[in-house]
Amino acid sequence: MNQFINILKYAKPYKSFALGHIISNVLYALFGALSFIALIPMLDILFEKKDPANIITEPVYTGISDLKDYYKDYLAYQVSLHADNEPQKALLLVVSLIIVLFLAKNIFGYLANYFMVFLRNGVVRDLRNAVYSKTVDLPLSYFSEQKKGDIMARVTNDVATLQYSMLPVLELIAREPLMILFTIIMMLLISTKLTLFVFVFIPLSGIIISRIGKSLKRKSDRVQQEQGVILSTLEETLTGLRIIKGFNGENKFIKRFEDSTSRFYHFSNKLLNRQNLASPTSEFLGILVISILLWYGGQLVLVEGTLDGSSFIAYMGLAYNIMVPAKAISRGLYNIKQGNAAAERIQEIIDSPNPLKDKENALIKTGFDSDIKFDNISFKYQNEYVLKNFSLNIKKGETVALVGQSGSGKSTIANLITRFYDVNKGAILIDGTDIRDLKTTSLRQQLGIVTQDAILFNDSIKNNLKLGKDDATDEEVIDALKVANAWEFVKTLPDGIETNIGDAGNKLSGGQKQRLSIARAVLKSPPIMVLDEATSALDTESERLVQLALENMMKNRTSIVIAHRLSTIQNADKIIVLNKGEIVEQGQHSELIAQKGVYQKLVEMQSFE
């Protein structure tokens, strides 16, 4: 139930719709209850023998305590005016009244649903936006421990589960309890004794129904977790289809997917069968209560004579009428239990702490003036430190290359300077200010990033480049493409810079994609460039073009180059050689070759990472 209350918080912006929904439901419930009371005078005329000496006079209103009798007697009086001489007219009067009451009830029922559409869909939209926004905001470290498919399942399937299980309960909050309340008031007005008798059995029914639903949350949780596994397997298959086929691994992945769908099949069967038990159980219990009412009410009419027949028939209609909202509420409680598991999984993302959140008075940096300083930093992803007591000073305008074997900590430097992670010890300072004291957006505004994998999006070339500078003109986009040696191939495409490059840029070659990612960094025009193995995955011809593009881009900029090949870093102002997270050599290319140490061995092995 706590999760349901959390979901209700998202309904606050839609208070006006909620108010319209509640008012409409009040009137819906009121007219619904009155429509049964309107039957009593007609039943009196149809089934009771009238004493000719008993002349019905127009009743006088004496107070709210006699409201039921006044309402009943007034209707009886209006009907009796025509009952003897014009029975058809009397019948038409009562039927017309019942039609008007039911029409009013259904009009307000429609209005209640009308307002609920905006409330419910608004909550779903805001909830989905909140989950996506938090997903984008969370640090990379969060996703290293999560499956992408499970995250996707939470944003899509779990929100959809809420939409069709827990959120419909919003419709029941006002309507069904009010329907029950007004119906009970009418039942008490007809017979207090009989209504008190009913209250003995309704709680017993509730206890039985609640016991059936206890395991729904656990069963629903298993279903939603398995949906995450299915999506993860599908995402991995689509991403690695080339490797799966190349290694004849189709059957292995098909079996993994089929195992998951089989588990989903069994979990879903158990969940749905438990849900299906709710309706017949509540209906049987409802009929059981009606049957007991028939027996006890018959005693009051036939034996004790404390209740007239027409009132008892109307009372039975009201009693059956109370079963409909009671069933809806019991079904709603089932849905809350099912939706609770989905709500927990969604709330888990929303409530996840972000250790990289900006400080309250974080500084906004608008430029880069002097230097970048790594001040005795140490960092670990899990247990072992991948950087130990690392210190480095990079002056404005310098190109500094980081080389070393795999696992030496080179890419970690790129992750730390961009604040994808925070250092465990020491500090990284730009112009003397700790980057943890800066607004993350303003820090990253000073940085351009080109990674080994050219990450592009299913959009036009222009929109891919404008990611870091949304107000760029077409001329600026073309200039950036020229700097990156990409304009030559872009201008030959059918739609030029408006050409859609497909999912992850798959319509282009590796070299073309990499040059576009360089052009994106050029268009952003930051003072600091971080190049993380930007040429390591390219063939010789593509590498030559990309290398030229990199050299063009690095002119008059401060650059941190994580190098794989010698050609990338020959002209660097300073080369830092790393081994197991520590600096073992540093200097220019010629100086390091002359030392005949670790760097020379790396050059000979051509094993730049």
Main CATH class of the domain at 2-13 and 115-350: Mainly Alpha
Q: How many β-strand runs? A: 10
Structural class: alpha/beta
Described by the principal axes of the CA atoms, the overall outline is elongated
The CA-CA distance between the termini, in Å, is 53 Å
Low-confidence stretches: 49-54
CATH topology of the domain at 2-13 and 115-350: ABC transporter transmembrane region fold
What's the helix count? 24
Mean pLDDT: 79
Beta content: 5-15%
Give Rg in angstroms: 37 Å
- Return the CATH architecture of the domain at 2-13 and 115-350: Up-down Bundle
How would you write the strand order of the largest sheet?
6-7-8-3-9-10
What's the CATH H-level homologous superfamily of the domain at 2-13 and 115-350?
ABC transporter type 1, transmembrane domain
Biggest sheet architecture: 6 strands, mixed
Helix content: 55-70%
Task: Write a short abstract of this structure.
The protein has 609 residues and is an alpha/beta fold.
Topology:
Blueprint: H1 2-8, H2 15-37, H3 39-47, H4 67-83, H5 87-137, H6 140-143, H7 148-164, H8 169-190, H9 192-212, H10 216-239, H11 241-246, H12 250-276, H13 278-304, H14 309-350, E1 371-380, E2 385-395, E3 399-404, H15 410-417, E4 425-430, E5 433-434, H16 440-445, E6 447-451, H17 461-465, H18 474-483, H19 487-490, H20 510-524, E7 528-532, H21 540-554, E8 558-562, H22 566-569, E9 574-579, E10 582-587, H23 589-595, H24 598-605
